[in-house]
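Hey, I'm writing a tutorial for new members on how sequence and structure tokens pair up, and I'd like a real worked example in the thread rather than a made-up one. If someone can provide the structure for the chain below, I'll link this post from the tutorial.
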Amino acid sequence: MGVLLAVSNGTAEEGTLSALETALGRAFPDRRLARAFTSAFFRQRRQERGCPVDSVPEALERLLAQGYGDVAVQPLLVAEGRAYGQLLEMVRPYRGRFRRLAVGAPLLAGDCRDAAQALPLPPLAAGRVTVFVGHGGTGSGSFARLEGALAAMGRRDVKIVPMEDLEDLGRRLEGEALCLRPLLLTAGRHASRDIFPWKERLEALGWSVTWTAEGLGMCPAVQAVFVRRLRAALESG
């Protein structure tokens, strides 16, 4: 039996994370499901609650000690940004130590067409703009590809922006109604703290703003994209 190691930053939203892991486990029933967190903060919180979670190196060392030779690592990440690069660096020293070590891609990989088709989008409506808000930084290139894929689908009413660009976006868009939702797999206190406060600021600019707090990880179509990412990694060797 091989192993499927689901790697996330870590979260307090156990339900969403479990839903993603369950979808992966169902797609690869011949693999034992394991998890690792990259965040020391969330690992410490789990340790304090008596349910510890390994870091990526700890998980890989444990699997080696248990005699596993076939490991599939699936990052539960949105963009091909800094976090993904760091994960690849963590995995690199182990590539010669397992018989097979495959690593899947994040949600926004390649041309992002399948991710664009998987997003939970409202019907087109005159005067309404939907804004998915994600982390900025090195994930911005993925955001541009995703927005381009949405435009190719005829959904120019959907914008993908990092958190820090929301006010500028609100000033240059045209419309009356704006729907905010997080471009995050889990959307708990982080989304409420960092995205929801923009609702009042955008309303002050004249927008009628609605807010959807559910993370993308609960969406079956998004879960299916992660399954395809890992299957592609396994098929490529």
